[in-house]
Design goal:
Length: about 250
Protein backbone atom coordinates (compact mmCIF):
# COMPACT_ATOMS: atom_id res chain seq x y z
CA UNK A 1 0.00 0.00 0.00
CA UNK A 2 1.22 3.50 -0.82
CA UNK A 3 2.68 5.28 2.23
CA UNK A 4 0.32 8.25 1.94
CA UNK A 5 -2.66 5.93 1.68
CA UNK A 6 -1.53 4.04 4.74
CA UNK A 7 -1.17 7.33 6.62
CA UNK A 8 -4.64 8.42 5.44
CA UNK A 9 -6.16 5.24 6.85
CA UNK A 10 -4.47 5.93 10.20
CA UNK A 11 -5.71 9.50 10.04
CA UNK A 12 -9.29 8.42 9.35
CA UNK A 13 -9.20 6.13 12.38
CA UNK A 14 -7.87 8.97 14.51
CA UNK A 15 -10.46 11.42 13.19
CA UNK A 16 -13.29 9.06 14.05
CA UNK A 17 -11.89 8.51 17.54
CA UNK A 18 -11.41 12.25 18.05
CA UNK A 19 -15.01 12.90 16.94
CA UNK A 20 -16.22 10.20 19.33
CA UNK A 21 -14.26 11.67 22.25
CA UNK A 22 -15.43 15.19 21.49
CA UNK A 23 -19.03 13.95 21.37
CA UNK A 24 -18.60 12.15 24.69
CA UNK A 25 -17.04 15.21 26.35
CA UNK A 26 -19.85 17.42 25.03
CA UNK A 27 -22.54 14.95 26.18
CA UNK A 28 -21.32 14.60 29.78
CA UNK A 29 -22.41 18.10 30.95
CA UNK A 30 -25.85 17.41 29.46
CA UNK A 31 -25.98 14.13 31.37
CA UNK A 32 -25.07 15.93 34.59
CA UNK A 33 -27.75 18.56 33.90
CA UNK A 34 -30.35 15.82 33.40
CA UNK A 35 -29.58 14.06 36.69
CA UNK A 36 -29.53 17.41 38.50
CA UNK A 37 -32.94 18.13 36.98
CA UNK A 38 -34.20 14.85 38.42
CA UNK A 39 -32.83 15.90 41.80
CA UNK A 40 -34.67 19.21 41.53
CA UNK A 41 -37.88 17.26 40.90
CA UNK A 42 -37.38 15.25 44.12
CA UNK A 43 -36.54 18.47 46.01
CA UNK A 44 -39.73 20.15 44.80
CA UNK A 45 -41.76 17.09 45.83
CA UNK A 46 -40.31 17.27 49.34
CA UNK A 47 -41.11 20.99 49.47
CA UNK A 48 -44.71 20.27 48.45
CA UNK A 49 -45.05 17.54 51.10
CA UNK A 50 -43.60 19.81 53.77
CA UNK A 51 -45.88 22.66 52.69
CA UNK A 52 -48.93 20.38 52.92
CA UNK A 53 -47.92 19.24 56.41
CA UNK A 54 -47.28 22.83 57.52
CA UNK A 55 -50.66 23.93 56.16
CA UNK A 56 -52.32 21.06 58.01
CA UNK A 57 -50.69 22.10 61.30
CA UNK A 58 -51.57 25.76 60.67
CA UNK A 59 -55.23 24.92 60.03
CA UNK A 60 -55.43 22.83 63.23
CA UNK A 61 -53.87 25.65 65.24
CA UNK A 62 -56.37 28.14 63.85
CA UNK A 63 -59.26 25.82 64.64
CA UNK A 64 -57.97 25.34 68.20
CA UNK A 65 -57.78 29.12 68.53
CA UNK A 66 -61.34 29.43 67.21
CA UNK A 67 -62.50 26.90 69.81
CA UNK A 68 -60.91 28.95 72.57
CA UNK A 69 -62.70 32.06 71.28
CA UNK A 70 -66.03 30.23 71.24
CA UNK A 71 -65.44 28.81 74.73
CA UNK A 72 -64.70 32.31 76.05
CA UNK A 73 -67.82 33.56 74.32
CA UNK A 74 -69.91 30.78 75.92
CA UNK A 75 -68.49 31.64 79.34
CA UNK A 76 -69.52 35.29 78.95
CA UNK A 77 -72.94 34.35 77.62
CA UNK A 78 -73.61 32.12 80.61
CA UNK A 79 -72.65 34.91 82.96
CA UNK A 80 -74.98 37.26 81.10
CA UNK A 81 -77.71 34.62 81.01
CA UNK A 82 -77.78 34.57 84.81
CA UNK A 83 -78.58 38.27 84.72
CA UNK A 84 -81.36 37.95 82.14
CA UNK A 85 -84.60 39.73 83.18
CA UNK A 86 -87.09 37.61 81.28
CA UNK A 87 -87.55 34.31 79.51
CA UNK A 88 -87.07 35.87 76.10
CA UNK A 89 -83.60 37.12 76.98
CA UNK A 90 -82.82 33.79 78.64
CA UNK A 91 -83.76 31.84 75.50
CA UNK A 92 -81.76 34.24 73.34
CA UNK A 93 -78.66 33.54 75.43
CA UNK A 94 -79.36 29.81 75.21
CA UNK A 95 -79.58 30.02 71.42
CA UNK A 96 -76.27 31.90 71.18
CA UNK A 97 -74.62 29.35 73.47
CA UNK A 98 -76.03 26.48 71.41
CA UNK A 99 -74.74 28.09 68.23
CA UNK A 100 -71.25 28.56 69.74
CA UNK A 101 -71.23 24.95 70.96
CA UNK A 102 -72.18 23.85 67.45
CA UNK A 103 -69.24 25.83 66.04
CA UNK A 104 -66.95 24.15 68.56
CA UNK A 105 -68.18 20.68 67.51
CA UNK A 106 -67.60 21.56 63.85
CA UNK A 107 -64.09 22.75 64.64
CA UNK A 108 -63.35 19.65 66.70
CA UNK A 109 -64.58 17.40 63.89
CA UNK A 110 -62.42 19.30 61.41
CA UNK A 111 -59.42 18.96 63.72
CA UNK A 112 -59.95 15.20 63.85
CA UNK A 113 -60.08 15.10 60.04
CA UNK A 114 -56.86 17.10 59.83
CA UNK A 115 -55.17 14.85 62.38
CA UNK A 116 -56.07 11.82 60.25
CA UNK A 117 -54.70 13.58 57.18
CA UNK A 118 -51.49 14.58 58.96
CA UNK A 119 -50.36 10.99 59.47
CA UNK A 120 -49.93 10.15 55.75
CA UNK A 121 -48.51 13.65 55.20
CA UNK A 122 -45.82 13.00 57.82
CA UNK A 123 -45.06 9.65 56.20
CA UNK A 124 -44.78 11.37 52.81
CA UNK A 125 -42.34 13.92 54.21
CA UNK A 126 -40.17 11.25 55.82
CA UNK A 127 -40.24 9.12 52.66
CA UNK A 128 -39.40 12.16 50.50
CA UNK A 129 -36.50 13.08 52.79
CA UNK A 130 -35.07 9.55 52.57
CA UNK A 131 -35.61 9.47 48.80
CA UNK A 132 -34.00 12.89 48.35
CA UNK A 133 -30.96 11.85 50.37
CA UNK A 134 -30.53 8.76 48.20
CA UNK A 135 -30.93 10.83 45.06
CA UNK A 136 -28.36 13.36 46.30
CA UNK A 137 -25.85 10.59 46.95
CA UNK A 138 -26.55 9.06 43.55
CA UNK A 139 -26.22 12.42 41.79
CA UNK A 140 -22.93 13.18 43.53
CA UNK A 141 -21.65 9.73 42.56
CA UNK A 142 -22.68 10.21 38.92
CA UNK A 143 -21.20 13.71 38.84
CA UNK A 144 -17.92 12.37 40.21
CA UNK A 145 -17.92 9.61 37.59
CA UNK A 146 -18.72 12.17 34.89
CA UNK A 147 -15.84 14.41 36.00
CA UNK A 148 -13.46 11.44 35.98
CA UNK A 149 -14.66 10.32 32.56
CA UNK A 150 -14.34 13.87 31.22
CA UNK A 151 -10.78 14.17 32.51
CA UNK A 152 -9.84 10.79 31.03
CA UNK A 153 -11.50 11.62 27.70
CA UNK A 154 -9.83 15.02 27.55
CA UNK A 155 -6.46 13.42 28.20
CA UNK A 156 -7.03 10.80 25.51
CA UNK A 157 -8.32 13.49 23.15
CA UNK A 158 -5.14 15.52 23.60
CA UNK A 159 -3.07 12.41 22.86
CA UNK A 160 -5.08 11.61 19.72
CA UNK A 161 -4.86 15.20 18.49
CA UNK A 162 -1.08 15.14 18.97
CA UNK A 163 -0.87 11.80 17.16
CA UNK A 164 -3.00 13.20 14.35
CA UNK A 165 -0.69 16.16 13.93
CA UNK A 166 2.26 13.77 13.73
CA UNK A 167 0.57 11.60 11.10
CA UNK A 168 -0.70 14.52 8.99
CA UNK A 169 2.75 16.14 8.97
CA UNK A 170 4.11 13.03 7.22
CA UNK A 171 1.57 13.20 4.39
CA UNK A 172 2.00 14.93 1.05
CA UNK A 173 0.54 18.46 1.60
CA UNK A 174 -1.65 18.32 -1.53
CA UNK A 175 -3.00 14.89 -0.67
CA UNK A 176 -3.61 15.98 2.92
CA UNK A 177 -5.58 18.97 1.62
CA UNK A 178 -7.67 16.58 -0.50
CA UNK A 179 -8.16 14.32 2.51
CA UNK A 180 -9.37 17.24 4.66
CA UNK A 181 -11.73 18.52 1.98
CA UNK A 182 -13.32 15.08 1.56
CA UNK A 183 -13.38 14.42 5.34
CA UNK A 184 -15.35 17.57 6.05
CA UNK A 185 -17.75 16.79 3.23
CA UNK A 186 -18.31 13.16 4.26
CA UNK A 187 -18.33 13.54 8.07
CA UNK A 188 -15.08 11.71 8.84
CA UNK A 189 -15.52 9.02 6.17
CA UNK A 190 -13.10 10.20 3.47
CA UNK A 191 -11.83 6.70 2.63
CA UNK A 192 -13.92 3.91 1.13
CA UNK A 193 -13.10 0.36 0.16
CA UNK A 194 -13.58 -1.00 -3.33
CA UNK A 195 -15.18 -4.37 -2.85
CA UNK A 196 -16.28 -6.62 -5.70
CA UNK A 197 -16.02 -3.76 -8.19
CA UNK A 198 -18.08 -1.28 -6.12
CA UNK A 199 -17.39 1.63 -3.80
CA UNK A 200 -18.69 0.42 -0.44
CA UNK A 201 -19.65 3.98 0.54
CA UNK A 202 -21.88 5.03 -2.35
CA UNK A 203 -22.44 1.48 -3.66
CA UNK A 204 -21.85 2.60 -7.27
CA UNK A 205 -20.09 0.18 -9.61
CA UNK A 206 -16.62 1.20 -10.72
CA UNK A 207 -15.65 1.25 -14.39
CA UNK A 208 -13.74 -1.97 -15.24
CA UNK A 209 -10.59 -0.11 -16.34
CA UNK A 210 -10.76 2.14 -13.28
CA UNK A 211 -11.09 -0.92 -11.06
CA UNK A 212 -8.14 -2.60 -12.74
CA UNK A 213 -6.00 0.51 -12.23
CA UNK A 214 -7.04 0.61 -8.58
CA UNK A 215 -6.01 -3.00 -8.08
CA UNK A 216 -2.49 -2.18 -9.23
CA UNK A 217 -2.10 0.05 -6.14
CA UNK A 218 0.53 2.29 -7.71
CA UNK A 219 -1.37 5.57 -7.35
CA UNK A 220 -4.01 7.18 -5.16
CA UNK A 221 -7.43 7.12 -6.75
CA UNK A 222 -10.77 8.71 -5.91
CA UNK A 223 -14.28 7.32 -6.43
CA UNK A 224 -15.71 8.88 -9.57
CA UNK A 225 -19.17 9.00 -7.96
CA UNK A 226 -18.76 10.15 -4.34
CA UNK A 227 -15.21 11.49 -4.51
CA UNK A 228 -13.86 9.44 -1.61
CA UNK A 229 -10.34 8.07 -1.52
CA UNK A 230 -10.49 4.44 -2.59
CA UNK A 231 -8.54 1.46 -1.29
CA UNK A 232 -8.74 -1.94 -2.92
CA UNK A 233 -10.11 -4.68 -0.72
CA UNK A 234 -10.43 -7.98 -2.57
CA UNK A 235 -13.22 -10.37 -1.62
CA UNK A 236 -11.71 -13.32 0.24
CA UNK A 237 -12.96 -16.66 -1.06
CA UNK A 238 -12.47 -18.81 2.04
CA UNK A 239 -13.49 -22.06 0.34
CA UNK A 240 -11.04 -21.53 -2.56
CA UNK A 241 -8.22 -20.61 -0.18
CA UNK A 242 -8.92 -23.70 1.88
CA UNK A 243 -8.95 -25.93 -1.19
CA UNK A 244 -5.70 -24.43 -2.45
CA UNK A 245 -4.01 -24.95 0.91
CA UNK A 246 -5.13 -28.58 0.98
CA UNK A 247 -3.75 -29.17 -2.52
CA UNK A 248 -0.43 -27.64 -1.50
CA UNK A 249 -0.31 -29.89 1.53
Amino acid sequence: MLPDLHLALRLQGLDRKIASLEGEIAALPKHVAEIEKQLESHTRQLERDRAALTANARDRKKLESDIQVQEQKISKLRDQMLQSKNNEQYRAFQNEIAYAEGEIRKAEDRILDLMEQSEPLEKNVKASEVDLKKQQQQVEGEKKTARERTAASQKELAEKVAERQSVSSQMDPKFYADYERIRKKTKNTPIAEAVDGRCDACRISLRPQFFQDLRKGDKIMFCESCGRILVYNPVIDVSSDLAASQQTA
